[in-house]
Specification:
The chain has 332 residues and is of the alpha/beta class. The protein has helices at residues 6-31, 53-69, 84-91, 106-113, 149-156, 172-184, 196-204, 215-223, 271-286, 288-296, 306-327, and strands at 42-46, 73-77, 99-104, 125-141, 162-166, 188-192, 210-214, 227-232, 258-266, 300-301. Strands 1, 2, 3, 4, 5, 6, 7, 8, 9 and 10 form a ten-stranded mixed beta sheet that branches. Helix 2 (53-69) packs across helix 9 and helix 4 (106-113) packs across helix 11 (306-327). The radius of gyration is 24 Å and the shape is globular.
Length: 332
């Protein structure tokens, strides 16, 4: 038997190893697997209870992200203080990509509402990904005698203020109710809940006469006949609720308020990890099935870079601070 020199055997082994690795890389590319490895499971901290629009979106994205990166992704709900409890947890987490924060526009509103935050929303996070925007819906119990926004505003013009449920202090829904009261010159009494899920459940049960919740939270109960939608806060009607007029159409001119939903990481997270997550999540958002599922819930999808999302958050913080000051909204 002819012996192969040792250096040639080593070279052959090395060449074979490179070919195997290259083949694996091609397989990853062809199956859509991400190239960057995540050594630890990823936790997405949601700042609201289960059942609301922010929670449902986090679970949809988390399930797809798990398939794409080949690592476990879990959703952990940490409601309370309009998202500030969960935000502080993530601000203090390791910046290795294993902990993310799922937020909505409440994150940009809170600095103008809460005077004493034990984290810095402008410095303690890196924006990763913005999924899109969604409007809120004004809903009443199905058995209510209120059928239009005009009916509700007449009740709010009486001696006693009309109670409205929102998804929590400082949320876009809280702000929408206060802005509506100011614009229509009526009296509304804010009843905060720990998320859109609990808020719309209370409205469906007849515990509160009016609710302002996200379209994604409201749509299942509207379709089930448990609540009735009387107006939507979007600037135009949305296809999923085509029969529901906008607040502006109902006579409150120039009224419009939408919110975004996105993911943040601790500020110490490397830019390469943030960029990789952004790319993977935007690919998920580009899938036809995901686009159809989210647009049916009322989302207008976006495809932003981390830098673009960061700029939007900073702009919204400044804009909402001016609005909350004009409305006199303070929680502590």
């Amino acid at each position: 038997m002819k012996m192969i020199p040792k250096h040639r055997r080593n070279w052959a082994v090395l060449t074979a190893a490179v070919l195997v690795m290259a083949a694996a890389g091609l397989w990853q590319a062809s199956t859509g697997k991400a190239a960057m490895r995540f050594e630890k499971p990823i936790t997405i901290v949601v700042t609201f209870p289960p059942g609301g629009g922010t929670d449902l979106l986090a679970r949809k994205l988390g399930a797809e992200l798990q398939q794409r990166i080949g690592q476990t992704v879990v959703v952990e709900n940490r409601p309370g203080a309009s998202g500030n409890i969960g935000a502080r947890q993530v601000a203090e987490a390791a910046g290795d990509g294993s902990t993310l924060l799922m937020v909505n526009s409440t994150f940009a509103i809170n600095p103008g509402v809460y005077q004493h935050l034990d984290f810095d929303p402008r410095k303690d996070f890196k924006p990763v990904f913005n999924a899109g925007t969604i409007a809120s819906v004004l809903v009443v119990p199905q058995q209510s005698e209120v059928h239009t926004l005009g009916d509700a505003l007449k009740l709010a013009s009486s001696a006693a203020p009309l109670a409205f449920a929102s998804c929590g202090n400082g949320t876009p829904q809280h702000m929408a109710g206060e802005m509506l009261a100011q614009a229509a010159q009526v009296r509304l009494q804010h009843v905060p809940y720990k998320g859109c899920g609990p808020a719309i459940t209370a409205v469906a049960a007849g515990q509160v006469a009016l609710g302002v919740v996200t379209a994604s939270s409201a749509t299942p109960l509207i379709e089930a006949g448990r609540v009735r939608a009387i107006a939507i806060t979007a600037p135009q009607r949305v296809p999923q609720l085509a029969d529901v007029p906008t607040v502006a159409e109902e006579g409150v001119k120039s009224f419009a308020l939408e919110q975004w939903h996105g993911l943040l990481a601790p500020a110490t997270t490397p830019d390469a990890v943030v960029a990789h997550l952004n790319e993977a999540l935007n690919q998920i958002l580009s899938a036809p099935e995901m686009q159809q599922a989210l647009t049916q819930q009322g989302y207008t999808l976006l495809k932003q870079t981390p830098g673009q999302f960061a700029q939007q958050i900073q702009t919204d913080m400044d804009r909402y601070a001016a609005v909350t000051q004009s409305l006199g909204l303070k929680v502590d």
